Amino acid sequence: MKTHSGAQGKMLNSNSPPLFGTSANYAFLKGRYGGRARRLGALLAALGMMFALPAQSATVYTQDAAPLASASIINSNAVVRAEGSDQDVAAYDNFTLKNSADIMSVTWRGASADKGLAGFTIKIYPSKSSPAAQPDTAHPLAVLSVTGMASERAAGKNLSDYSADFAQPLALAAGVQYWISIVSSRNDLSPWGWANGTGGDGKSIQSYAEFKVLPAPGDRAFSLNDARNSAREH
């Protein structure tokens, strides 16, 4: 009997084929274990399909918040009363996607919450055919009402980042101008402001209770995402 030093001291019959080193050995192993390997591979592939990681979410469109050193806000708020208030004002900003997408969530920056903040209303609009520089407020594509602080996170300088999820995916087409409004719901007459951003066309607008439209300086800070914020945070 001979011993084989490469087999951890096990005794091998001299007629046993060597374990390594020749094409004949490979053929022997393939013939003996190939069926098992194929079955194992198929099982692992099936498990991979069952437990595949979800696709990574992406920011579909963003107008990044301006640096804190140059941050500013414009008012965008409405009193929570049936009759509203003459001080109600809504800010709007336009955007155009490079690629079609299903929007699932929105984030934005604005003044930090105070005791008068009751929530937010976010709306997405098409553009009017004329004048094209205004949203078609009579036909919103989506309306999202948020109660409370909208997952507020302090950003500094009395500003906060907020986020909210749409109930259903909102399909938006590439190359089409849309508008977004983010209006705080207020329990008092104190204002709330939407912060300025970068990356758009450098313009936004405000409309007051009587829908007197006025230009507003700069872009607004917001982003649109193709996954819910709760999913993006994990």
Q: What can you tell me about this protein's structure?
A:
- The protein has about 230 residues and is mainly beta.
- The chain has two domains: about 1-50, no CATH class; about 60-230, Jelly Rolls (Sandwich), CATH 2.60.120.
- The protein contains two helices and 17 strands.
- Strands 3, 4, 7, 10, 11, 13, 16 and 17 form an eight-stranded antiparallel beta sheet that branches.
- The longest helix is centred in the first third of the chain and has 28 residues, at about 25-50.
- The model is unreliable at about 1-15, about 15-20 and about 50-55 (pLDDT under 50).
Shape: globular
Output the helix-strand order: EEHEEEEEEEEEEEEEEEH
Taking pLDDT < 50 over at least 5 consecutive residues as the criterion, the unreliable ranges are: 1-14, 16-21, 49-55
Ends distance = 61 Å
- What fraction of the residues are assigned to beta strands by DSSP? 35-45%
Can you count the beta strands?
Answer: 17
Mean model confidence by pLDDT: 81
Backbone structural class: mainly beta
Query: What count of domains describes the coordinates?
Result: 2
CATH topology of the largest domain, which one?
Jelly Rolls
CATH architecture of the largest domain: Sandwich
Q: What oligomeric state do these chains adopt? A: single chain
Number of helices: 2
